[in-house]
Design brief:
globular, disordered N terminus
Length: 257
């Protein structure tokens, strides 16, 4: 009877053991569930300097390739609101000091009358990097920017195009399918965005077809390339501004020219 009294329904000790058992089960379930991200994949966007500069000179002669716009956390539904500014962690350039010399070339702010490079990077971190930082491999500012640089150097877009006979030119144009086909031959599924040609920039004759502005690639949360969802391709076709049959990749101008 003493034993029954000790472990009876109203026993405080039994209640304690039950509570501990519930907590133990809950902790196991929680540990088994991965942290839910606010996004599904990334869009890696590269810019063509010859278009971004809008006829102006490149600030450095070493800018000879596509430059980085950013790595953007995105959700599968292209029509849905995309995650932005997921934390209030402020950009701190001291955390990426060792990366700055490289970033000044491959992640430069090239738009006419735009802000400084550091202001550009601050914008990209605040708007997109704070969301990407939900992943452990992108948790710090150094992790984020160094991994984006790694993606850029592992994706030599211009070399891919040139290997298939597609070169920057102020006289020759290419179709969207030609450009996408060149990328596809290397296993990359690219989405193209263009902008209207400048109106007789710097008094020079220019082509009157859209200029290639950017190429977007989709990356999974392990930062591996995969084929973008059809809705994103449809969005690029509808809103990208490229003429399917004729796209211009303007040459980059330098001060010596």
């Amino acid at each position: 009877w003493a034993t029954q009294s000790t472990w009876g329904h109203s026993s405080p000790m039994k209640a304690v053991f039950v509570a501990l058992a519930v907590l133990a089960v809950a902790s196991v379930v929680t540990a088994a569930e991965p942290k839910r991200l606010s996004f599904d994949f990334f869009i890696f966007r590269s810019l063509w300097p010859g278009t971004v500069l809008a006829g102006n000179d490149a600030p450095y002669s070493s800018i000879q390739n596509f430059t980085i716009h950013g790595l953007w956390a995105s959700v599968n539904d292209s029509s849905a609101e995309q995650p932005e500014q997921c934390t209030d962690v402020q950009f701190d350039i001291s955390e990426i000091e060792s990366l700055v010399p490289t970033m000044n070339i491959v992640w430069a702010s090239l738009w006419p009358n735009s802000g400084t490079n550091s202001a550009f990077w601050s914008h990209e971190w605040g708007k997109h990097g704070t969301c990407a930082s939900e992943l452990s491999q992108l948790a710090t500012q150094y992790d984020f920017f160094s991994n984006v640089l790694k993606i850029k150097f592992e994706t030599p877009l211009l070399q891919m195009l040139e290997s298939k006979g597609i070169y920057p030119s102020n006289t020759k144009t290419y179709s969207v399918s030609q450009i996408q086909g060149a990328l596809a031959s290397y296993g990359y599924d690219g989405m193209l965005y263009c902008q209207p040609p400048p109106s007789n920039a710097n008094g020079e004759d220019t082509l009157t077809v859209p200029q290639l502005l950017s190429i977007e690639l989709c990356l999974d949360t392990d930062l591996r390339h995969f084929e973008c969802d059809s809705s994103y391709h449809e969005q690029a076709s509808k809103e990208g501004g490229c003429n399917a049959s004729s796209v211009w990749i303007p040459t980059i101008k330098y001060k010596s020219e």
